């Protein structure tokens, strides 16, 4: 079978092996730090000075190494402080979490796959209205700009689901689905019913999901169950309980591709809460887009990249790739330009963050963002603040009801620095806002999976769509306007100086936010 749990992915084997080593290494490091401190104060007083200077020198050498890395200061400073304060523990945790031992091997596999895939994308077209953003995306992520693509925006996830079910039922050649989280309940079961019918009709169906993202939603037999009905399934980074708890890199992408002609992406996963079948955090706000045309090829490449890189042995042949990525009968004379793109934690380029920074830097009248979490670098905070100072109406929508209270406190700790500089902050009062999108000047917009937080911007595999001058841009703007009416604005509350203890707690939370 192609990729079920009976054929464990190469990724999973390596991560399970690394997970055992990391867990043991972490526990021993913490114990060593405790033993070290006890010995310093009890048995080794006469050697305390020598030991102290030795550990300081080693810690300083690692700090210099970290400082020399091509990373934002926001990512470096917490490690530097931790290592200098607790040398043994800090060094151990840095090698455990800060450096991913599997990253180089992972990158080599992805590079091998990308070399075969990206040649099918071509050069695309020039985007005269992209304000340089399209050129950046193409140069640093490899995904070109397309014309002749219809875009439909969904202001509610359930509308996207209904549309997907309709299109899935008409599939003739293949269906690819990649999601961070799948819950084996009503929403997914509606989809699976259609997928099973398509399999019987001779359609190839593949499902790819992230194991960590689906914890609590599906059990270990889920992939086997899909394989049993003819649905090919692979799992990204299978999580062995208690072993792989330190994995930074997850697959956060959300993609559906149908026959290489129709594609879906957006913020919603395939679980009941996203479609308001259940209400764990009040109402759920999520959005997505349907694209039909040439640009679907980029979504197909994004899916095939993850599918093929997850297995060292079982990969698509050149013949298969040529079939999946061949020219189709696409719509003609569609307005505007669309550029689906993917972001990887393996290439050292934060495409998702740079696109958001570029959006706000290029905005002339307004720039709006919607995100479930707001945990950002100094560079992004500076860009948002500077745009506001030069007269751009910058607004950010976050949830009114959180799904993770500790993360919500960290999100709110970033309000002050933005509100003090005129950025307007809105909290969506009906419940949890999970959408990830932006719009500027009635001309530019993004919609996809990329949150305004460290995990999305630095650690996860993500995807998005950059759009200019397509009718869907105005639909996104209209949805923002409607959403603002359902929000409480908290700008004034957070633009004043808070008490010293509160400011101190905020500084600490923001300092170590990237380690969450």
Quick overview:
The chain has 516 residues and is α/β, with parallel strands linked by helices. The chain is built from 19 helices and 19 strands.
> Which structural class best describes the helix and strand composition?
alpha/beta
According to CATH, the homologous superfamily of the largest domain is: Endonuclease Chain A
CATH fold node name of the largest domain? Endonuclease, Chain A
Count the strands? 19
Main sheet record: 8 strands, mixed
Q: What is the straight-line distance between the termini?
A: 37 Å
* Content of β-strand: 15-25%
Q: Low-confidence runs (pLDDT<50, min 5 residues)?
A: 1-23, 241-246
In DSSP terms, counting alpha (H) and pi (I) runs of 4 or more, how many helices?
19
Helix content: 40-55%
CATH class of the largest domain: Alpha Beta
CATH architecture of the largest domain: 2-Layer Sandwich
Evaluate the radius of gyration.
24 Å
Query: What order do the strands of the largest sheet run in, or round the barrel if closed?
Result: 9-18-16-15-10-12-13-19
Oligomer: single chain
Number of domains: 3
Kindly state the mean pLDDT as a whole number? 87
Task: Estimate the global geometry from the Cα principal axes.
Answer: globular
